[in-house]
Amino acid sequence: MTKTAEIVVIGGGVSGLSCAYNLAKRGVNDIVVLEKGYIGMGATGRCGAGVRQQWGMEENIILARESVKIFERLSGELGFNTFFRQGGYLLLVFDEREFELVSKTVPIQNRLGVPTRLLDTKEVADLVPGINTDGVLAAAYCPTDGFCYPYAVLWGYAEAARRLGVQIRVCTEVTSVSPVGSGRYEVVTPRDTYHTPIVLNVAGARTKDIAAMLGIEIPTEPFRHEIAVTEPLKPFLDPMVISLKKGFYFLQSVRGEVVGGIGDENEPSSFNTKSSPDFLFRYAAALREIFPALGKARIIRQWAGLYDVSPDARPILGTVDGHPGYYHACGFSGHGFMLSPIVARLLSELITAGSTSIPIGGLELSRFSEGSITKDPYVVG
Amino acid sequence: MTKTVLCHCEDVEIDELYSAVKQGYGDIETLKRYTGIGTGKCQGKCCLVQTLRILASLDTPAERKTAGGDASELMGDPRKIRLPTIRPPLLPMRIDDILEENGERR
Ligand SMILES: Cc1cc2nc3c(=O)[nH]c(=O)nc-3n(C[C@H](O)[C@H](O)[C@H](O)COP(=O)(O)OP(=O)(O)OC[C@H]3O[C@@H](n4cnc5c(N)ncnc54)[C@H](O)[C@@H]3O)c2cc1C
Protein backbone atom coordinates (compact mmCIF):
# COMPACT_ATOMS: atom_id res chain seq x y z
CA MET A 1 0.00 0.00 0.00
CA THR A 2 1.26 3.52 -0.73
CA LYS A 3 1.17 5.83 2.27
CA THR A 4 2.32 9.34 2.92
CA ALA A 5 4.45 10.71 5.72
CA GLU A 6 5.91 14.06 6.64
CA ILE A 7 9.26 12.53 7.45
CA VAL A 8 10.56 9.02 6.86
CA VAL A 9 13.43 8.04 9.13
CA ILE A 10 15.47 5.09 7.87
CA GLY A 11 17.06 3.16 10.75
CA GLY A 12 15.91 2.26 14.27
CA GLY A 13 19.20 2.86 16.06
CA VAL A 14 19.92 5.60 18.54
CA SER A 15 20.23 8.18 15.74
CA GLY A 16 16.87 7.32 14.20
CA LEU A 17 14.91 7.12 17.43
CA SER A 18 16.45 10.19 19.06
CA CYS A 19 15.85 12.23 15.89
CA ALA A 20 12.26 10.98 15.59
CA TYR A 21 11.60 11.93 19.19
CA ASN A 22 13.15 15.39 18.82
CA LEU A 23 11.30 16.06 15.57
CA ALA A 24 7.99 15.04 17.15
CA LYS A 25 8.77 17.23 20.14
CA ARG A 26 9.26 20.13 17.75
CA GLY A 27 5.77 19.57 16.40
CA VAL A 28 6.25 17.40 13.33
CA ASN A 29 3.31 15.06 12.82
CA ASP A 30 3.30 11.92 10.81
CA ILE A 31 6.84 10.66 11.34
CA VAL A 32 7.56 7.06 10.35
CA VAL A 33 10.68 5.18 11.47
CA LEU A 34 11.57 2.14 9.36
CA GLU A 35 13.85 -0.47 10.89
CA LYS A 36 14.83 -3.60 9.00
CA GLY A 37 15.13 -5.82 12.09
CA TYR A 38 14.42 -5.05 15.72
CA ILE A 39 15.24 -1.83 17.54
CA GLY A 40 18.93 -1.73 18.36
CA MET A 41 19.97 -4.48 15.96
CA GLY A 42 22.69 -2.27 14.45
CA ALA A 43 25.67 -0.74 16.21
CA THR A 44 23.65 0.84 19.02
CA GLY A 45 22.52 -2.44 20.57
CA ARG A 46 26.06 -3.79 20.40
CA CYS A 47 27.93 -0.79 21.76
CA GLY A 48 29.60 0.08 25.06
CA ALA A 49 27.40 3.19 25.36
CA GLY A 50 30.27 5.16 26.83
CA VAL A 51 29.79 8.91 27.01
CA ARG A 52 32.92 11.04 27.24
CA GLN A 53 33.75 14.69 26.84
CA GLN A 54 37.50 14.10 26.69
CA TRP A 55 38.21 14.94 23.08
CA GLY A 56 41.04 16.74 21.37
CA MET A 57 39.21 19.09 19.00
CA GLU A 58 37.16 21.95 20.41
CA GLU A 59 34.21 21.16 18.16
CA ASN A 60 34.09 17.58 19.45
CA ILE A 61 34.45 18.64 23.09
CA ILE A 62 31.53 21.06 22.73
CA LEU A 63 29.24 18.50 21.08
CA ALA A 64 30.05 15.89 23.74
CA ARG A 65 29.59 18.41 26.55
CA GLU A 66 26.16 19.38 25.24
CA SER A 67 25.25 15.69 24.92
CA VAL A 68 26.18 15.07 28.55
CA LYS A 69 23.88 17.92 29.62
CA ILE A 70 21.04 16.15 27.82
CA PHE A 71 21.97 12.68 29.12
CA GLU A 72 21.92 14.05 32.68
CA ARG A 73 18.21 14.80 32.36
CA LEU A 74 17.18 12.22 29.79
CA SER A 75 15.70 9.60 32.11
CA GLY A 76 13.34 12.19 33.53
CA GLU A 77 12.51 13.67 30.17
CA LEU A 78 11.71 10.31 28.58
CA GLY A 79 10.13 8.80 31.69
CA PHE A 80 12.44 5.82 31.26
CA ASN A 81 15.55 4.91 33.24
CA THR A 82 18.52 5.09 30.86
CA PHE A 83 20.90 3.92 33.62
CA PHE A 84 23.18 6.86 32.82
CA ARG A 85 25.92 6.60 35.40
CA GLN A 86 28.55 9.31 35.70
CA GLY A 87 31.46 7.33 37.06
CA GLY A 88 33.88 9.30 34.94
CA TYR A 89 36.34 8.26 32.25
CA LEU A 90 39.91 7.49 33.24
CA LEU A 91 42.23 7.82 30.29
CA LEU A 92 45.50 6.06 31.08
CA VAL A 93 48.65 7.67 29.71
CA PHE A 94 51.37 5.22 28.68
CA ASP A 95 54.09 7.31 27.05
CA GLU A 96 55.58 10.79 26.76
CA ARG A 97 53.76 11.58 23.54
CA GLU A 98 50.41 10.83 25.15
CA PHE A 99 51.43 12.81 28.20
CA GLU A 100 52.17 15.81 26.01
CA LEU A 101 48.84 15.40 24.25
CA VAL A 102 46.75 15.30 27.43
CA SER A 103 48.78 18.09 29.06
CA LYS A 104 47.96 20.27 26.07
CA THR A 105 44.32 19.18 25.79
CA VAL A 106 43.10 19.15 29.39
CA PRO A 107 43.33 22.98 29.68
CA ILE A 108 41.28 23.30 26.48
CA GLN A 109 38.64 20.94 27.91
CA ASN A 110 38.65 22.96 31.16
CA ARG A 111 38.24 26.24 29.31
CA LEU A 112 35.18 24.76 27.60
CA GLY A 113 33.71 23.75 30.95
CA VAL A 114 34.70 20.08 30.98
CA PRO A 115 36.17 19.28 34.42
CA THR A 116 38.99 16.92 33.38
CA ARG A 117 42.07 16.79 35.59
CA LEU A 118 45.41 15.03 35.45
CA LEU A 119 46.06 12.33 38.03
CA ASP A 120 49.40 10.84 39.05
CA THR A 121 49.71 7.07 39.42
CA LYS A 122 49.02 7.17 43.14
CA GLU A 123 45.77 9.02 42.56
CA VAL A 124 44.89 6.48 39.86
CA ALA A 125 45.46 3.62 42.30
CA ASP A 126 43.31 5.37 44.93
CA LEU A 127 40.48 5.94 42.46
CA VAL A 128 40.49 2.38 41.13
CA PRO A 129 41.56 -0.15 43.75
CA GLY A 130 43.24 -3.16 42.18
CA ILE A 131 44.36 -1.41 39.02
CA ASN A 132 47.87 -2.23 37.83
CA THR A 133 49.71 1.01 37.15
CA ASP A 134 52.91 -0.57 35.78
CA GLY A 135 53.82 1.41 32.70
CA VAL A 136 51.20 4.05 33.44
CA LEU A 137 52.72 7.55 33.60
CA ALA A 138 49.58 9.45 34.56
CA ALA A 139 45.91 9.65 33.67
CA ALA A 140 43.30 12.16 32.61
CA TYR A 141 40.09 11.87 34.59
CA CYS A 142 36.79 13.55 33.87
CA PRO A 143 34.26 12.76 36.62
CA THR A 144 31.19 13.78 34.61
CA ASP A 145 31.81 11.29 31.79
CA GLY A 146 29.96 7.99 32.07
CA PHE A 147 27.90 5.38 30.27
CA CYS A 148 24.32 4.16 29.82
CA TYR A 149 22.58 0.90 29.05
CA PRO A 150 22.15 1.40 25.30
CA TYR A 151 18.87 -0.50 25.00
CA ALA A 152 17.30 1.56 27.77
CA VAL A 153 18.10 4.72 25.83
CA LEU A 154 16.63 3.22 22.66
CA TRP A 155 13.46 2.05 24.36
CA GLY A 156 13.09 5.32 26.23
CA TYR A 157 13.29 7.30 22.99
CA ALA A 158 11.00 4.81 21.22
CA GLU A 159 8.29 4.96 23.88
CA ALA A 160 8.44 8.74 24.17
CA ALA A 161 8.36 9.11 20.37
CA ARG A 162 5.40 6.76 20.15
CA ARG A 163 3.51 8.78 22.75
CA LEU A 164 4.03 11.80 20.48
CA GLY A 165 2.53 9.91 17.56
CA VAL A 166 5.63 8.57 15.83
CA GLN A 167 5.09 5.26 14.07
CA ILE A 168 7.94 2.80 14.42
CA ARG A 169 7.87 -0.12 12.03
CA VAL A 170 10.25 -2.96 12.84
CA CYS A 171 10.99 -5.83 10.44
CA THR A 172 10.61 -3.29 7.64
CA GLU A 173 13.65 -2.98 5.41
CA VAL A 174 13.96 -0.09 2.99
CA THR A 175 14.78 -1.56 -0.40
CA SER A 176 14.67 1.56 -2.56
CA VAL A 177 14.62 5.35 -2.25
CA SER A 178 14.07 7.56 -5.26
CA PRO A 179 12.81 11.05 -6.10
CA VAL A 180 9.31 11.05 -7.60
CA GLY A 181 8.95 14.72 -8.56
CA SER A 182 7.36 17.74 -6.89
CA GLY A 183 9.95 17.55 -4.13
CA ARG A 184 8.95 14.10 -2.93
CA TYR A 185 10.74 10.85 -2.33
CA GLU A 186 9.41 7.35 -2.67
CA VAL A 187 10.64 4.96 0.02
CA VAL A 188 9.89 1.32 -0.74
CA THR A 189 9.69 -1.55 1.76
CA PRO A 190 8.31 -5.08 1.33
CA ARG A 191 5.30 -3.96 3.39
CA ASP A 192 4.35 -0.44 2.35
CA THR A 193 5.64 2.31 0.10
CA TYR A 194 5.89 5.83 1.50
CA HIS A 195 5.78 9.17 -0.28
CA THR A 196 7.44 11.88 1.75
CA PRO A 197 9.01 15.31 1.31
CA ILE A 198 11.73 14.51 3.86
CA VAL A 199 14.01 11.49 4.17
CA LEU A 200 16.34 11.15 7.15
CA ASN A 201 18.93 8.51 6.37
CA VAL A 202 20.39 7.15 9.62
CA ALA A 203 20.96 3.51 8.75
CA GLY A 204 24.31 3.15 10.52
CA ALA A 205 26.93 1.39 8.41
CA ARG A 206 24.27 1.02 5.68
CA THR A 207 23.69 4.77 5.39
CA LYS A 208 26.06 4.90 2.43
CA ASP A 209 24.10 2.16 0.64
CA ILE A 210 20.84 4.09 1.03
CA ALA A 211 22.56 7.31 -0.10
CA ALA A 212 23.93 5.50 -3.15
CA MET A 213 20.33 4.80 -4.22
CA LEU A 214 20.07 8.59 -4.71
CA GLY A 215 23.48 8.90 -6.35
CA ILE A 216 25.06 10.36 -3.22
CA GLU A 217 28.53 9.07 -2.43
CA ILE A 218 29.45 8.82 1.25
CA PRO A 219 33.10 7.98 2.00
CA THR A 220 32.55 5.82 5.10
CA GLU A 221 33.79 2.27 5.64
CA PRO A 222 32.46 -0.41 8.00
CA PHE A 223 34.88 -2.01 10.48
CA ARG A 224 34.12 -4.83 12.88
CA HIS A 225 34.68 -4.07 16.55
CA GLU A 226 34.39 -6.83 19.10
CA ILE A 227 33.31 -6.63 22.70
CA ALA A 228 33.04 -9.05 25.62
CA VAL A 229 31.47 -9.30 29.05
CA THR A 230 32.36 -11.12 32.26
CA GLU A 231 30.03 -12.69 34.76
CA PRO A 232 28.65 -10.11 37.23
CA LEU A 233 31.17 -9.13 39.92
CA LYS A 234 30.82 -7.04 43.04
CA PRO A 235 30.98 -3.33 42.25
CA PHE A 236 34.66 -2.33 42.17
CA LEU A 237 35.05 -0.04 39.18
CA ASP A 238 33.50 3.41 38.91
CA PRO A 239 35.14 5.04 35.90
CA MET A 240 35.38 3.71 32.39
CA VAL A 241 39.09 2.95 31.91
CA ILE A 242 40.49 3.60 28.43
CA SER A 243 43.76 3.88 26.55
CA LEU A 244 44.26 5.71 23.28
CA LYS A 245 47.59 3.97 22.71
CA LYS A 246 46.45 0.42 23.45
CA GLY A 247 42.95 0.93 22.08
CA PHE A 248 41.05 -0.67 24.97
CA TYR A 249 38.13 0.33 27.16
CA PHE A 250 36.70 -1.38 30.26
CA LEU A 251 33.64 -0.52 32.29
CA GLN A 252 31.63 -2.22 34.99
CA SER A 253 27.93 -2.19 34.17
CA VAL A 254 25.29 -1.50 36.78
CA ARG A 255 24.63 -5.25 36.78
CA GLY A 256 28.26 -5.81 37.79
CA GLU A 257 29.60 -7.24 34.54
CA VAL A 258 32.89 -5.97 33.22
CA VAL A 259 32.27 -4.95 29.62
CA GLY A 260 34.97 -3.87 27.22
CA GLY A 261 36.81 -4.13 23.98
CA ILE A 262 40.11 -3.59 22.26
CA GLY A 263 40.70 -2.42 18.71
CA ASP A 264 42.67 -4.28 16.08
CA GLU A 265 44.78 -2.26 13.66
CA ASN A 266 44.79 -5.15 11.18
CA GLU A 267 41.00 -5.48 10.96
CA PRO A 268 40.02 -5.07 7.31
CA SER A 269 36.95 -3.09 6.31
CA SER A 270 33.94 -5.42 5.98
CA PHE A 271 30.41 -6.04 7.17
CA ASN A 272 31.57 -9.07 9.16
CA THR A 273 30.04 -9.11 12.66
CA LYS A 274 31.21 -12.58 13.75
CA SER A 275 33.05 -13.06 17.03
CA SER A 276 36.63 -14.29 16.90
CA PRO A 277 38.80 -16.31 19.30
CA ASP A 278 41.68 -13.97 18.42
CA PHE A 279 39.80 -11.07 19.99
CA LEU A 280 39.00 -13.13 23.07
CA PHE A 281 42.71 -13.78 23.66
CA ARG A 282 43.82 -10.20 23.03
CA TYR A 283 41.01 -8.82 25.16
CA ALA A 284 41.61 -11.25 28.03
CA ALA A 285 45.32 -10.35 28.03
CA ALA A 286 44.64 -6.61 28.04
CA LEU A 287 42.03 -6.88 30.79
CA ARG A 288 44.20 -9.05 33.06
CA GLU A 289 47.16 -6.75 32.57
CA ILE A 290 45.20 -3.76 33.87
CA PHE A 291 43.19 -5.71 36.50
CA PRO A 292 45.33 -8.71 37.56
CA ALA A 293 42.65 -10.00 39.95
CA LEU A 294 40.26 -10.48 37.02
CA GLY A 295 42.29 -13.50 35.92
CA LYS A 296 39.85 -15.41 38.12
CA ALA A 297 36.77 -13.85 36.52
CA ARG A 298 34.94 -15.64 33.77
CA ILE A 299 34.01 -14.23 30.39
CA ILE A 300 30.48 -15.26 29.57
CA ARG A 301 29.74 -13.63 26.25
CA GLN A 302 31.32 -11.87 23.30
CA TRP A 303 29.85 -10.26 20.22
CA ALA A 304 30.70 -7.72 17.54
CA GLY A 305 29.30 -4.70 15.79
CA LEU A 306 30.31 -2.24 13.11
CA TYR A 307 31.97 1.14 13.39
CA ASP A 308 30.93 3.29 10.44
CA VAL A 309 34.22 5.10 9.94
CA SER A 310 34.64 8.40 8.10
CA PRO A 311 37.97 9.70 6.76
CA ASP A 312 38.42 12.09 9.74
CA ALA A 313 36.63 9.88 12.29
CA ARG A 314 34.02 12.62 12.74
CA PRO A 315 30.31 12.26 11.96
CA ILE A 316 28.80 13.29 8.66
CA LEU A 317 25.65 15.34 9.28
CA GLY A 318 23.20 17.51 7.49
CA THR A 319 22.14 18.10 3.92
CA VAL A 320 23.52 17.33 0.47
CA ASP A 321 23.57 19.87 -2.37
CA GLY A 322 21.11 19.04 -5.10
CA HIS A 323 18.98 16.80 -2.86
CA PRO A 324 16.44 19.02 -1.10
CA GLY A 325 14.58 17.24 1.67
CA TYR A 326 17.32 14.64 2.10
CA TYR A 327 19.24 14.55 5.42
CA HIS A 328 21.66 12.08 6.93
CA ALA A 329 23.79 11.32 9.98
CA CYS A 330 26.50 8.66 9.76
CA GLY A 331 30.25 8.10 9.96
CA PHE A 332 30.16 8.20 13.76
CA SER A 333 33.39 6.18 13.80
CA GLY A 334 32.72 4.52 17.15
CA HIS A 335 31.26 7.45 19.08
CA GLY A 336 27.76 7.90 17.76
CA PHE A 337 26.08 6.82 20.94
CA MET A 338 27.59 9.60 23.04
CA LEU A 339 26.81 12.23 20.42
CA SER A 340 23.25 11.11 19.72
CA PRO A 341 21.39 13.52 22.04
CA ILE A 342 22.99 16.63 20.59
CA VAL A 343 23.00 15.33 17.02
CA ALA A 344 19.28 14.67 17.31
CA ARG A 345 18.66 18.17 18.62
CA LEU A 346 20.72 19.81 15.88
CA LEU A 347 19.27 17.73 13.06
CA SER A 348 15.72 18.35 14.23
CA GLU A 349 16.49 22.09 14.32
CA LEU A 350 17.96 21.91 10.85
CA ILE A 351 14.98 20.01 9.44
CA THR A 352 12.28 22.13 11.05
CA ALA A 353 13.94 25.58 11.15
CA GLY A 354 16.68 25.42 8.52
CA SER A 355 19.49 26.32 10.93
CA THR A 356 21.19 24.88 14.01
CA SER A 357 21.97 26.37 17.44
CA ILE A 358 25.55 25.04 17.22
CA PRO A 359 27.19 25.33 13.80
CA ILE A 360 27.56 21.99 12.03
CA GLY A 361 29.12 23.33 8.85
CA GLY A 362 32.33 21.45 9.59
CA LEU A 363 30.43 18.16 9.67
CA GLU A 364 28.70 18.36 6.28
CA LEU A 365 29.51 15.78 3.61
CA SER A 366 30.93 18.55 1.42
CA ARG A 367 34.01 18.90 3.67
CA PHE A 368 35.61 15.90 1.99
CA SER A 369 35.59 17.56 -1.43
CA GLU A 370 36.73 20.92 -0.06
CA GLY A 371 40.25 19.94 0.89
CA SER A 372 41.83 19.52 4.29
CA ILE A 373 40.22 17.56 7.11
CA THR A 374 41.50 17.12 10.66
CA LYS A 375 41.38 13.91 12.66
CA ASP A 376 40.91 14.10 16.42
CA PRO A 377 43.85 12.49 18.27
CA TYR A 378 41.45 11.20 20.96
CA VAL A 379 39.98 8.41 18.82
CA VAL A 380 40.16 5.00 20.54
CA GLY A 381 40.52 1.69 18.74
CA MET B 1 0.74 -15.35 45.87
CA THR B 2 2.92 -17.91 44.19
CA LYS B 3 5.99 -16.88 42.31
CA THR B 4 7.40 -18.90 39.47
CA VAL B 5 11.01 -18.15 38.79
CA LEU B 6 11.86 -18.50 35.13
CA CYS B 7 15.49 -17.39 35.10
CA HIS B 8 17.46 -18.03 38.25
CA CYS B 9 20.64 -16.21 37.24
CA GLU B 10 18.88 -12.95 36.52
CA ASP B 11 16.02 -13.52 38.95
CA VAL B 12 13.19 -13.17 36.43
CA GLU B 13 9.72 -14.40 37.29
CA ILE B 14 7.20 -15.70 34.78
CA ASP B 15 4.96 -12.73 35.52
CA GLU B 16 7.74 -10.41 34.44
CA LEU B 17 7.87 -12.17 31.12
CA TYR B 18 4.12 -11.68 30.60
CA SER B 19 4.39 -8.06 31.61
CA ALA B 20 7.35 -7.45 29.26
CA VAL B 21 5.36 -8.96 26.40
CA LYS B 22 2.37 -6.79 27.24
CA GLN B 23 4.53 -3.68 27.27
CA GLY B 24 5.81 -4.47 23.82
CA TYR B 25 9.11 -6.18 24.51
CA GLY B 26 8.04 -9.63 23.44
CA ASP B 27 10.27 -10.74 20.58
CA ILE B 28 13.04 -12.99 21.84
CA GLU B 29 15.96 -10.64 21.05
CA THR B 30 14.27 -7.73 22.80
CA LEU B 31 12.87 -9.83 25.64
CA LYS B 32 16.36 -11.13 26.41
CA ARG B 33 17.71 -7.59 26.76
CA TYR B 34 14.66 -6.22 28.57
CA THR B 35 14.32 -8.92 31.23
CA GLY B 36 17.87 -10.31 31.26
CA ILE B 37 16.61 -13.80 30.44
CA GLY B 38 19.42 -15.88 28.99
CA THR B 39 22.15 -13.34 29.74
CA GLY B 40 23.22 -14.61 33.17
CA LYS B 41 25.87 -17.11 34.17
CA CYS B 42 24.10 -20.12 32.70
CA GLN B 43 23.62 -18.26 29.41
CA GLY B 44 20.07 -19.50 28.97
CA LYS B 45 20.55 -23.18 29.68
CA CYS B 46 17.76 -23.11 32.24
CA CYS B 47 15.33 -20.50 30.98
CA LEU B 48 15.44 -20.13 27.22
CA VAL B 49 13.43 -23.15 26.21
CA GLN B 50 10.77 -22.36 28.81
CA THR B 51 10.64 -18.80 27.55
CA LEU B 52 10.16 -19.92 23.97
CA ARG B 53 7.44 -22.34 25.03
CA ILE B 54 5.55 -19.52 26.71
CA LEU B 55 6.03 -17.17 23.76
CA ALA B 56 4.70 -19.85 21.42
CA SER B 57 1.57 -20.17 23.53
CA LEU B 58 0.66 -16.48 23.24
CA ASP B 59 -1.61 -15.82 20.34
CA THR B 60 -3.72 -12.72 20.67
CA PRO B 61 -2.79 -9.83 18.36
CA ALA B 62 -2.22 -7.49 21.32
CA GLU B 63 0.50 -9.82 22.45
CA ARG B 64 2.30 -9.59 19.18
CA LYS B 65 3.38 -5.99 19.42
CA THR B 66 6.97 -5.22 20.14
CA ALA B 67 8.67 -1.98 21.16
CA GLY B 68 7.14 0.42 18.73
CA GLY B 69 5.26 -1.71 16.31
CA ASP B 70 3.92 -4.87 14.87
CA ALA B 71 6.56 -7.53 15.02
CA SER B 72 4.60 -10.52 13.90
CA GLU B 73 7.53 -11.43 11.72
CA LEU B 74 9.71 -11.59 14.79
CA MET B 75 7.38 -13.32 17.19
CA GLY B 76 3.76 -13.76 16.13
CA ASP B 77 3.93 -17.00 14.23
CA PRO B 78 4.91 -19.79 16.61
CA ARG B 79 6.79 -21.48 13.81
CA LYS B 80 9.06 -18.45 13.59
CA ILE B 81 9.87 -18.42 17.27
CA ARG B 82 13.54 -19.19 17.61
CA LEU B 83 16.47 -18.93 19.97
CA PRO B 84 18.25 -15.60 20.23
CA THR B 85 21.70 -15.44 18.64
CA ILE B 86 23.97 -17.75 20.62
CA ARG B 87 27.21 -15.98 21.57
CA PRO B 88 30.56 -17.62 22.34
CA PRO B 89 32.13 -18.86 24.53
CA LEU B 90 29.88 -21.87 25.01
CA LEU B 91 30.92 -22.20 28.65
CA PRO B 92 31.96 -19.26 30.81
CA MET B 93 35.77 -19.21 30.66
CA ARG B 94 38.14 -17.90 33.26
CA ILE B 95 40.49 -15.28 31.89
CA ASP B 96 43.49 -17.19 33.28
CA ASP B 97 42.32 -20.29 31.41
CA ILE B 98 41.74 -18.40 28.18
CA LEU B 99 45.27 -17.07 28.31
CA GLU B 100 46.76 -20.39 29.29
CA GLU B 101 45.04 -21.97 26.33
CA ASN B 102 46.72 -19.36 24.18
CA GLY B 103 50.11 -20.35 25.60
CA GLU B 104 50.46 -17.30 27.78
CA ARG B 105 51.37 -18.38 31.26
CA ARG B 106 51.62 -16.11 34.23
C1 LIG C 1 31.54 -2.71 19.85
C2 LIG C 1 31.12 -1.27 19.75
C3 LIG C 1 31.33 -0.42 20.83
C4 LIG C 1 30.95 0.92 20.76
N1 LIG C 1 31.12 1.71 21.85
C5 LIG C 1 30.68 3.00 21.82
C6 LIG C 1 30.78 3.83 22.97
O1 LIG C 1 31.26 3.41 24.03
N2 LIG C 1 30.33 5.11 22.89
C7 LIG C 1 29.79 5.61 21.73
O2 LIG C 1 29.41 6.78 21.70
N3 LIG C 1 29.68 4.84 20.62
C8 LIG C 1 30.11 3.55 20.64
N4 LIG C 1 30.00 2.78 19.52
C9 LIG C 1 29.47 3.38 18.29
C10 LIG C 1 27.97 3.49 18.33
O3 LIG C 1 27.42 2.20 18.59
C11 LIG C 1 27.41 4.01 17.01
O4 LIG C 1 28.13 5.14 16.57
C12 LIG C 1 25.95 4.39 17.13
O5 LIG C 1 25.24 3.39 17.82
C13 LIG C 1 25.36 4.62 15.77
O6 LIG C 1 23.95 4.71 15.88
P1 LIG C 1 23.06 4.79 14.58
O7 LIG C 1 21.66 4.85 15.01
O8 LIG C 1 23.58 5.89 13.73
O9 LIG C 1 23.37 3.43 13.80
P2 LIG C 1 22.86 1.95 14.13
O10 LIG C 1 22.71 1.73 15.57
O11 LIG C 1 23.73 1.02 13.37
O12 LIG C 1 21.40 1.93 13.55
C14 LIG C 1 21.13 1.85 12.18
C15 LIG C 1 19.89 1.00 12.00
O13 LIG C 1 19.51 1.04 10.64
C16 LIG C 1 18.98 -0.22 10.31
N5 LIG C 1 19.03 -0.38 8.85
C17 LIG C 1 20.11 -0.59 8.07
N6 LIG C 1 19.75 -0.68 6.77
C18 LIG C 1 18.40 -0.50 6.74
C19 LIG C 1 17.43 -0.51 5.70
N7 LIG C 1 17.78 -0.70 4.42
N8 LIG C 1 16.12 -0.31 6.02
C20 LIG C 1 15.76 -0.12 7.32
N9 LIG C 1 16.65 -0.13 8.34
C21 LIG C 1 17.94 -0.31 8.05
C22 LIG C 1 19.88 -1.20 11.06
O14 LIG C 1 19.23 -2.45 11.25
C23 LIG C 1 20.14 -0.46 12.36
O15 LIG C 1 19.26 -0.85 13.39
C24 LIG C 1 30.37 1.44 19.56
C25 LIG C 1 30.15 0.58 18.48
C26 LIG C 1 30.52 -0.76 18.56
C27 LIG C 1 30.27 -1.65 17.38
Give a short summary of the structure:
The complex is a heterodimer of chains A (381) and B (106). Chain A is built from 8 helices and 20 strands.
* Side-by-side strand order of the widest sheet of chain A: 6-7-5-15-16-17-14-18
Count every beta strand of chain A, where a strand is a DSSP E run of 2 or more residues.
20
Q: Give the oligomeric state of the chains in this entry, treating copies of one chain as homo and distinct chains as hetero.
A: heterodimer
Note the total helix count of chain A.
Answer: 8
Q: Specify the overall morphology of chain B.
A: elongated
Mean pLDDT of chain B: 79
H/E series of chain B, N to C? EEHHHEEHEH
Radius of gyration of chain B: 17 Å
Largest interface: A-B, 41 and 34 residues
The CATH fourth-level homologous superfamily of the largest domain in chain A: FAD/NAD(P)-binding domain
Give the proportion of residues in helices of chain A.
25-40%
CATH classification class of the largest domain in chain A: Alpha Beta
Q: How many domain modules of chain A?
A: 2
Please count the beta strands of chain B (DSSP E, at least 2 residues each).
Answer: 5
